[in-house]
Amino acid sequence: MQQNAVPIKTILFIMSTVLILMSATISALNNYEKYSYETTTINVADNWVKVYSDSISQGNSWSKKVEEGASQGFDCEIKKGDPHPYCIMLNWITPSEFQGLNLSLYKYMTIHGTYDSPSMNDFLRVSLRQFDLGYTQMNKVHTYKYNLIEIQRKNFKDEIRIDLSDLSVPFWWMSMMKGQKVDSFVAINNVPLIEVSTGTHATIGEHKLRISSFDFDREVVPITKVYEYILLVWGCFIFLILMIVSIYFAILLRTKVDNEKNLIQINTALSLRSAELEIFNKTDELTGVLNRAGMQNKMMDCMSQDVLPLTVVMVDLDHFKKINDRYGHQTGDVVLANLGELLNKFIKNDESVSRFGGEEFMILMPNQTFEMVKERIEALRVEIETYDMPIDKPVTASFGVATSIYRIEFKQLIEKADNALYVAKNNGRNCIKHEGD
Ligand SMILES: Nc1nc2c(ncn2[C@@H]2O[C@H](COP(=O)(O)OP(=O)(O)OP(=O)(O)O)[C@@H](O)[C@H]2O)c(=O)[nH]1
After folding, report:
1. Is CATH 2.60.120.430 correct for 38-220?
2. Cα 226–186–128 angle (5° rounding)?
């Protein structure tokens, strides 16, 4: 798995939350109408219902109030006579006209009932009649403000739903009320009366109206509130996601920094350890000078860089076998270790020293001739002789030196130094011999 990839669990959590929120949002919007409206029902059977027709003025239409079960209405015959023949059903929905219903908070009205007429193109007039002491006169129904809507008969099948914002105050009522303080604004905050009548230009013939109830729907939770809640929930969710993502990346960053720190520490420790190991691998444990492998590297370096002149010094303890025999092998080891220390102190710059075998050591002195190092070697010889060794006799060493001015094989140079050492041994030891001496 990629280290900076968002964990699959987090992705699943976010995706399932998005799905849940989406279905909740869709369901809230779909079911909004069902659950966010409160319905007030007015049963016509509880009302005082009055029916009449244009015959009360100059018309010939005829009407009769009809009660059928829970429904009431009229049987009416529209006849020619009045310029606008009509039949009317008045529903007094409150006992007192001073205390009409306040319908101003309601959004819809549903009429349950039926309407039959000679033509499907007939209309039905529905008016919520407002009682207002400013212009309404007692017992004069025509002074109740008409908040009117005309509905088509073909749309009225068992019930019809009316949007109350479609109500309007008709011009003819305003003209009729001329001289009174009336305005053309819909007012339904004190409605004692619902009037249902045949529409303008009702078709001549039989009209039958039956109404069982009026439902008024009021918005409990306005749709704007629903949008606000949805936005709030989505906002919180997006905020939560941003929080999770930022916390996740902060942790990731910290882990990465910690890992990098750990890695640096491990690398440093490993480098130190490998440096230690390298030194350990190339160092003679007893004497602390280079071992053969260590010296091999130095010689290779000189070869590859064509270092010239180059002096090789072979140092060999004199009569070391006797020291071992007389003082013991352990004391012999201490003598060897002391010599190693002296030799390590002796070398400088790019010089190096190694244990060549047993009690024999080799010093490599690049860019120097015998003449240049002669005095230093002599000083070393004296230092060994005078060094405070753990035996009661001075320890001495013989030196064989060889220098190459021209490029020759290392093997040859060492042989030459070894030959010189042999000469030194044969010359009574504790002395320095150069090749050719
Ligand atoms: N204590 C000790 N002795 C060693 C070690 N390596 C080699 N020797 C001894 O060094 C001695 C070398 O003896 P020889 O080769 O005869 O040389 P020498 O006695 O020094 O005589 P010359 O070189 O001729 O002066 C042997 O007795 C080896 O056992 C070591 O690591 N520790």
Report:
1. yes
2. 95
